[in-house]
C-alpha cells in the first residue's frame, strides 16, 4: 500500500483480515480502510420499501459481507488511480501503472506533473489514460489553489476538501478537472469519504437496475453538463436520473447497492448475453418482466 500508511499490507484470509505493518498503527484508521468502521449494511434492509427490499435481500444473500472503505488522507492517490481506471481493466493495467507511479513520485503525487509524455511512456506505460491522469492532476492542483487549499501536505488535502461539502466537491471535480465525469467523480468521493449517498453510475448499475425494475426504462445516466452546473438536490432533471432515483429508493444503502449490482453484473447480469438461467435473482427479475439490453441501449436510455 502507498500513501499515508505506506508499507501497510492487508490480506483477507477466510472471514478475517490479516494486517502487516512495521510501526505504530491506528486501528480505527485500519477499520475505515477495510470498511468495518460502521455496522453491516444488511441490518438496514428492512427499512427499505418492499419492492427494493426484496432485491436488496436477494443481493445480500448472494454477496454477503460487502463493505465500503474510507481513506480521505490518500485522496490524491485515489484521484490518480480512479482517473487511470477509465476504460482500463483494474487488475491487468491500473494496478501496474499505480505501482510504477508511486515508485516514481514517492510521497508526493504532484511530482508526476514534472514528467513529459515521453518520460511517462518510458517510466509508466504508453496508454492514453496515463497522460489523462497527469492532465486531471494538474487541474486538481489549480482547483486547490482556487479554493485556498495547500498542496504542501498531500495527506491534508482530502480532509480540507471535505469542508467544501461533498455535493459541491463533486460538482467542482466534474466542472474543473479534465477527464472527470459523474462516474469518476462519484468513485473518487465514495472511495475517499465513504459517502453512502454517492453511487458511481456505470453501465453495470444501469443494466441491473433497469432489469430489476429499480428504475424505469427511460431513466437516463447522469448528464455531465447538468452535473457540472448543479448539485444533485438542485438539478432540474433529477427525477429522470438513474443515480438520483437509486439514492431516492435505497437511501443510505445506495452505494452498497451499487457495489452489489456491479458484482452481480460481472457474474450474471452481463450487458451482452446475460446468464439469466443461472441467475440467483431470477424470481425477482422475472417479476418485473424486463428484457435484456445492449450496452449502447443502456447508455442511450433507449432500452
Topology:
Elements: E1 9-13, E2 16-20, H1 27-34, H2 50-62, H3 75-84, H4 90-105, H5 117-123, H6 128-147, H7 157-162, H8 166-176, H9 182-193, H10 203-212, H11 224-229, H12 242-250, H13 254-267, H14 282-288, H15 295-300
Antiparallel strand pairs: 1-2
- Please, how many domains? 3
Give unreliable regions as ranges: 290-299
Radius of gyration: 20 Å
Oligomeric status: single chain
CATH class of the largest domain: Mainly Alpha
Average predicted confidence as pLDDT: 92
Fill in the CATH topology of the largest domain.
Answer: Endonuclease III, domain 1
Strand order of the largest sheet: 1-2
Output the number of helix runs.
15
| SSE run | EEHHHHHHHHHHHHHHH
Q: How much of the polypeptide forms β-strand, as a percent range?
A: under 5%
Architecture per CATH nomenclature, i.e. the level-2 architecture of the largest domain:
Orthogonal Bundle
Largest sheet: 2 strands, antiparallel
Give the N-to-C terminal Cα separation.
41 Å
What does this structure look like?
With 303 residues, this protein is mainly alpha-helical. It has three domains: 1-30, no CATH class; 72-193, Endonuclease III, domain 1 (Orthogonal Bundle); 203-300, no CATH class. 51% of the residues lie in helices and 3% in strands. It has 15 helices and two strands. The protein has helices spanning 27-34, 50-62, 75-84, 90-105, 117-123, 128-147, 157-162, 166-176, 182-193, 203-212, 224-229, 242-250, 254-267, 282-288, 295-300; strands spanning 9-13, 16-20. Strands 1-2 form a two-stranded antiparallel sheet. A hairpin with a 2-residue loop joins β1 and β2. The longest helix is centred in the middle third of the chain and has 20 residues, at 128-147. Residues 290-299 have low confidence and may be disordered.
Amino acid at each position: 500500500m502507498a500513501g499515508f500508511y505506506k508499507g501497510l499490507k492487508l490480506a483477507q484470509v477466510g472471514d478475517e483480515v490479516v494486517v502487516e505493518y512495521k510501526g505504530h498503527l491506528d486501528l480505527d484508521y485500519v477499520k475505515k480502510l477495510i470498511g468495518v468502521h460502521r455496522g453491516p449494511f444488511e441490518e438496514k434492509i428492512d427499512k427499505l420499501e418492499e419492492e427494493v427490499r426484496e432485491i436488496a435481500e436477494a443481493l445480500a444473500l448472494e454477496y454477503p459481507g460487502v463493505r465500503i472503505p474510507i481513506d480521505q488522507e490518500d485522496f490524491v492517490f485515489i484521484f490518480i488511480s480512479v482517473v487511470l481506471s477509465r476504460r482500463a481493466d483494474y487488475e491487468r493495467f491500473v494496478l501496474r501503472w499505480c505501482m510504477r507511479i508511486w515508485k516514481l513520485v514517492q510521497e508526493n503525487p504532484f511530482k508526476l506533473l514534472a514528467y513529459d509524455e515521453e518520460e511517462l511512456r518510458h517510466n509508466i506505460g504508453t496508454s492514453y489514460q496515463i497522460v489523462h491522469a497527469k492532465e486531471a492532476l494538474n487541474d486538481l492542483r489549480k482547483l486547490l489553489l482556487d479554493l485556498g487549499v495547500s498542496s504542501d501536505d498531500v495527506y491534508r488535502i482530502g480532509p480540507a476538501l471535505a469542508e467544501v461539502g461533498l455535493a459541491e466537491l463533486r460538482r467542482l471535480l466534474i466542472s474543473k478537472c479534465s477527464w472527470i465525469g459523474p462516474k469518476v467523480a462519484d468513485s473518487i468521493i465514495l472511495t475517499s469519504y465513504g459517502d453512502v449517498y454517492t453511487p458511481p453510475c456505470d453501465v453495470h448499475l444501469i443494466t441491473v437496475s433497469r432489469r430489476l425494475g429499480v428504475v424505469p426504462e427511460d431513466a437516463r445516466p447522469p448528464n455531465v453538463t447538468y452535473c457540472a452546473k448543479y448539485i444533485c438536490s438542485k438539478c432540474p432533471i433529477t427525477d429522470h436520473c438513474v443515480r438520483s432515483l437509486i439514492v431516492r429508493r435505497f437511501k443510505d444503502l445506495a452505494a452498497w447497492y451499487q457495489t452489489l449490482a456491479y458484482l452481480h453484473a460481472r457474474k450474471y447480469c452481463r450487458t451482452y448475453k446475460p446468464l439469466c438461467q443461472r441467475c440467483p435473482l431470477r424470481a425477482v427479475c422475472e417479476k418485473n418482466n424486463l428484457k435484456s439490453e445492449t450496452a449502447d441501449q443502456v447508455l442511450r436510455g433507449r432500452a
